[in-house]
């Protein structure tokens, strides 16, 4: 983004939230709290420290266009004071990660595998699937607990899609 001075424009530093700015030789890198997430915007021309601006965005090529336009839409909602939650889809694996953490906590508190199944999937459904001839529910709980153990033992960075050492 280029930040062109503009009286009556957008005062980025006055937006809600604690905006973090990293000033480097080639850009000001902004991290702006917005809705359930954050926006990262690089100001490569001008500065946000001189007061209100008119933001000028450059969209690079068709391949990277979608995420850039999404950031622009999120920024527009933030400026309007109404960030749109639909623009912040939940983490695709959030349900599984939550199940892993809940299962681990229940197991650590002494719950049986059957109790954990009831906690995660409802008592009626867990009881029905537990008592049928299928081992589906038992294996499912074992897999969730195994994944939780791996996460607790340090592979959480892989499970969350993070790479490299801290």
Structural write-up:
This protein is α+β, with helices and mostly antiparallel strands and 166 residues long. It folds into two domains: 2-87, no CATH class; 94-159. 44% of the residues lie in helices and 20% in strands. It is built from five helices and six strands. A hairpin with a 2-residue loop joins strand 3 and strand 4. The chain is elongated.
Spatial shape: elongated
Structural class: alpha+beta
**Succession of helices and strands:** EEEEEEHHHHH
Contiguous runs where pLDDT drops below 50 for at least 5 residues: none
Percent of sequence in beta strands: 15-25%
Overall residue-averaged pLDDT value: 84
* Sheet with most strands: strand arrangement: 5-1-6
Helix amount, in percent?
A: 40-55%
Gap between N and C termini: 30 Å
Whole-number tally of structural domains: 2
Using only C-alpha atoms, the radius of gyration works out to 23 Å
H/I helix tally: 5
Number of strands: 6
Biggest sheet, in brief? Answer: 3 strands, mixed
């Amino acid at each position: 983004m280029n930040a062109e001075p503009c009286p009556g424009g957008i005062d980025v530093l006055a937006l809600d939230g604690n905006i973090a700015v990293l000033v480097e030789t080639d850009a000001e890198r902004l991290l702006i709290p917005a809705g359930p997430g954050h926006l990262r915007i690089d100001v490569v021309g001008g500065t946000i420290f001189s007061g209100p601006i008119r933001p000028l965005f450059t969209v690079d090529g068709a391949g990277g266009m979608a995420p850039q336009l999404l950031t622009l839409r999120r920024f527009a909602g933030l400026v309007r004071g109404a960030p749109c939650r639909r623009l912040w889809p939940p983490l695709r694996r959030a349900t599984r990660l939550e199940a892993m953490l809940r299962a681990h906590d229940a197991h650590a508190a002494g719950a049986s595998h059957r109790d954990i199944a009831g906690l995660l999937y409802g008592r009626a459904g867990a009881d029905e699937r537990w008592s049928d001839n299928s081992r589906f529910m038992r294996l499912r709980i074992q897999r969730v607990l195994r994944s939780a153990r791996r996460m607790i033992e340090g592979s959480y960075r892989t499970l969350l899609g993070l790479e490299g050492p801290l």
